[in-house]
Specification:
7 strands; alpha+beta; single chain; two-stranded antiparallel sheet; five-stranded mixed beta barrel; 26% strand
């Protein structure tokens, strides 16, 4: 006579599957019993109060404010709203590696260190502590100095003429 094909492991797995199935059915029945089917529409509403908090009570009509459509700004400010920036800057070279072709310029106004590449020099050779004028453009990794020229120091203001001596 042949032995039964069912082993202990198969019987145990079958019991676990049956138990999971009954638990799942019990959870389904419980969810259906606790569900708020047919709840009033007003109970499902959520309101935003004057402080921006979500609440279940409707807003007070006496606190209503009228906002003009023109006052709502969704996008970036228009070009004409911005002040034009001074594109020409002055500074001094703090570091420049001529063999690798890059360095840094310290802006004299903001004390910001700005990257400069040899391609932006236009054949000009610069060294450390040179005074330069340049323009700044945003590159993929931050601000880059472009159109670099020697002689960044602005001329000193002319001395006021001496007052004639009283005779």
């Amino acid at each position: 006579m042949g032995r039964s094909q069912e082993t202990f492991g198969k019987k145990d797995n079958e019991k676990k599957r049956a138990k999971k199935k009954t638990e799942k059915e019990e959870r389904k029945v419980e969810r259906q019993a606790n569900a708020k089917s047919g709840a009033a529409l007003e109970e499902m509403f959520a309101y935003v109060d004057e402080n921006g908090n979500i609440t279940s009570t409707p807003p007070d009509p006496t606190k209503k404010r009228v906002i003009k459509d023109e006052d709502i700004r969704i996008s970036v400010a228009k070009q004409e709203d911005r002040e034009p920036e001074d594109t020409q800057r002055t500074g001094s070279v703090t570091f420049f590696n001529s063999s690798k072709g890059y360095g840094f310029i310290r802006d004299s106004q903001t004390q910001e260190s700005i990257f400069v590449h040899a391609n932006a020099l236009g054949g000009l050779t610069i060294g450390e502590n040179d005074k330069v004028t340049f323009e700044v453009e945003m590159g993929p990794k931050g601000p880059n100095a472009v159109r670099v020229r020697m002689g960044g120091a602005t001329p000193p203001p002319a001395a006021a003429p001496a007052a004639p001596a009283a005779e």
